[in-house]
Amino acid sequence: MPNNQNSKPKRRSSKWLLLLIIAANILASWAIKPIMPYVQVPAENLAGPLRLPVMGDIYLTNTIVAILIADVLLFAFAFIVHRQLRSGDLVPHGLSGAIEAILEALYNLVSETAHKWAEWIFPWVASLVLVVLVVNWMELIPGVDSIGFLHEAHEGVPVYETQSLLQMGSFNLSTITAEIEPLGEEAHGIGFTPFVRVASTDLNFTIALAVTSVVMTQVLGVKAAGVSYFKKFFNFDGVMAVFSKTKEKKQFGPIFAFTDIFVGLLELISEFARIISFAFRLFGNIFAGSVLLFVMGSLVPVLVQSIFLFLELFVGLIQAIVFGMLTLVFMSMATISHEA
Amino acid sequence: MTPDVAEKLVTGIKYLSAAIAMLSAIGPGLAIGILSYAALQGISRNPEAGGQIQINMILAIAFAEAIAIYALVVAMLILFVG
User: Chain B residue with minimal CA distance to A278?
Assistant: First the structure.
């Protein structure tokens, strides 16, 4: 007869806690209506410019804060796995076991696609997947895009009226209660800037990742095939065979030799189009998702945004995996020799 | 035409052009449908290759969806930036 005393204790308290949270949510959104945040494509600056001699002005934007937080998280994960490996225990437990499972799944994917070069390709693909995944999933954390600081509003930014919740000395915790209709060009008032904004909504981040991916693909191609890798783009072999007097077997005649040049140039252009495609796929998905969350959160403040948070969870995961998989596919295509 | 009316007209045309930009999402929708159809047929004929087919299907769907995302980015640029 099964021993019922070893079964899990009944967790009745979590049901009431959930109902309490939902009730508090409804009360809070009835008292203070959520405002649609201001959406702009460039990231907002938090701290003043750092003037560098050659590179110009560097601002601390709220997406840089998000990337720093993601970096700290990833280093913490790496440190946890390192400590568990150091301890000599062959069976991983807990968080390090989960991270090892993810990495093992990624390594299997990489080694299925790129058989010989998997060891070179894997760090790049895994880094891209993990960074993009952590950065995408930060949009689900409450506080990202919604907690920030109030400041003097400049041109074009909506102006809010605020209500102070907590005041300790010079520290003032306020919440935004309503949006004031713009009073024309002379509008002065209080504007809002979030502390942390999802890094994938910043085109700088996505273009940087895309350029890294495409450039390292070319590096891998040179590593696999030598400098003759660039013959894929500047394909003068057919033309040389036409003009040479040796009795080499000329495949398909001179017309196809001339079209080979244009095919090569088209490949070169498609490499640059790949940068744009990578960057805008990730940017568009995550930016659209965050705007969707803003709109849903401000239209129906209770419970509806949770459904869209599930959607964003899924979309963030898929976009991270797709970024990594496309990098993997293009890198393994670069290692395949062009000779048929 | 007074400047007030002109400004309202510009805003109206802005919204209309954003809507027209999103009409082009029909293409990726059809593309994803055709891809899923082919992938489901492949999986039903050969369930052992299901993993490989699934991976390639997700890859191809990401390519197709990127076009829809380009249209969405254009629409959002029209609405929110200029």
Answer: B66
Tell me which fold the domain B24-80 belongs to: F1FO ATP Synthase (1.20.20)
Please give the helix or strand (H or E) that residue A45 lies within, else none. Answer: strand A45-52
**pLDDT number for residue A340:** 41
Distance from the Cα of A209 to chain B's closest Cα (Å) equals: 16
Q: Categorize the per-residue pLDDT at A184 as very low, low, confident or very high, splitting at 50, 70 and 90.
A: low
> By percentage, how much of chain B surpasses pLDDT 90?
54
Q: How many CB pairs lie under 8 A apart between chains A and B?
A: 46
- Name the residue of chain A whose CA is nearest to B76's CA: A288
Output the CA–CA distances (angstroms, integers) from residue A23 to A19, A76, A302, A317, in the order listed.
6, 35, 10, 31
CA distance A199 to A196: 9
Cβ atoms of A162 and A176 within 8 Å: the answer is: yes
* Alpha helices (H) along chain B: 3-21, 26-45, 50-80
CB contact under 8 A, B69 and A40: no
Chain A: residue whose CA lies nearest to B58? A322
pTM: predicted TM-score of the whole model, two decimal places: 0.83
Which tokens go with A279? Answer: 């960057």
The residue-averaged pLDDT of A187-205 equals 86
Q: Tens digit of pLDDT for each residue in A121-150? A: 999 999 999 999 999 999 999 888 888 888
Contact, A138 vs A197, CB < 8 A?
A: no
The sign of the torsion formed by the CA atoms of A42, A44, A50, A51 equals: positive
- Domains of chain B, residue spans: 24-80
Contact yes or no for B69 and A281 at CB 8 A? yes
φ, ψ (nearest 5 deg) of residue A116: -85, -35
Q: Does this complex have an ipTM over 0.85?
A: no
Q: Say which residues have a Cβ less than 8 Å from residue A270's Cβ, sequence separation at least 6.
A: none
